[in-house]
């Protein structure tokens, strides 16, 4: 079956709240480059409160309910995150803690997920990426396999929202192709 014309819907979660965030810029650039095969909806996490189990009941906190809903309605998730102190930023962990409930029945269960980490350092946030993988595994998300996408020296590659490293961009888009293939493969099984 030819599936080249099929669009898949992916939520692009930025791990940074910074106005001029490289992570958010990367997602916006990829959203343009990957369309129309992949429709990336970029979301940021400023409205998600700190996790509190006392608040995690009906009626849901509205911002959390809407976050869970867009993940549940998506075909897949792309997380673009910086590294903070050798780990993922607290805002990412916090949002995933909310999204992880109900445990083992959450909106992330079996959801295909890809990760891009970036940093000004040449290590490209690889430690945050591995920490994030562990958390996603605990949530029974489906990590899309393939070479890790780690963007080192990100500040030198982005200028005015244009990505200057063609090879790196191709590498990122290939990773998105793998995410799309995973999603389409599932549609085939379910059809
Ligand atoms: C609190 C804090 C801790 C950081 N720790 C690390 C780190 O451990 N490793 C690293 O490579 N970069 C570290 N950085 C640099 C960020 O990863 C880098 O500035 C990143 O590009 C910021 O992402 P953003 O542009 O999406 O906001 C840190 C930055 C901050 C603010």
UniProtKB/TrEMBL annotation:
<dbReference type="Pfam" id="PF03358">
    <property type="entry name" value="FMN_red"/>
</dbReference>
<dbReference type="InterPro" id="IPR029039">
    <property type="entry name" value="Flavoprotein-like_sf"/>
</dbReference>
<dbReference type="InterPro" id="IPR050712">
    <property type="entry name" value="NAD(P)H-dep_reductase"/>
</dbReference>
<dbReference type="InterPro" id="IPR005025">
    <property type="entry name" value="FMN_Rdtase-like_dom"/>
</dbReference>
<dbReference type="GO" id="GO:0005829">
    <property type="term" value="C:cytosol"/>
</dbReference>
<dbReference type="GO" id="GO:0010181">
    <property type="term" value="F:FMN binding"/>
</dbReference>
<dbReference type="GO" id="GO:0016491">
    <property type="term" value="F:oxidoreductase activity"/>
</dbReference>
<feature type="domain" description="NADPH-dependent FMN reductase-like">
    <location>
        <begin position="9"/>
        <end position="154"/>
    </location>
</feature>
<protein>
    <submittedName>
        <fullName>NADPH-dependent FMN reductase</fullName>
    </submittedName>
</protein>
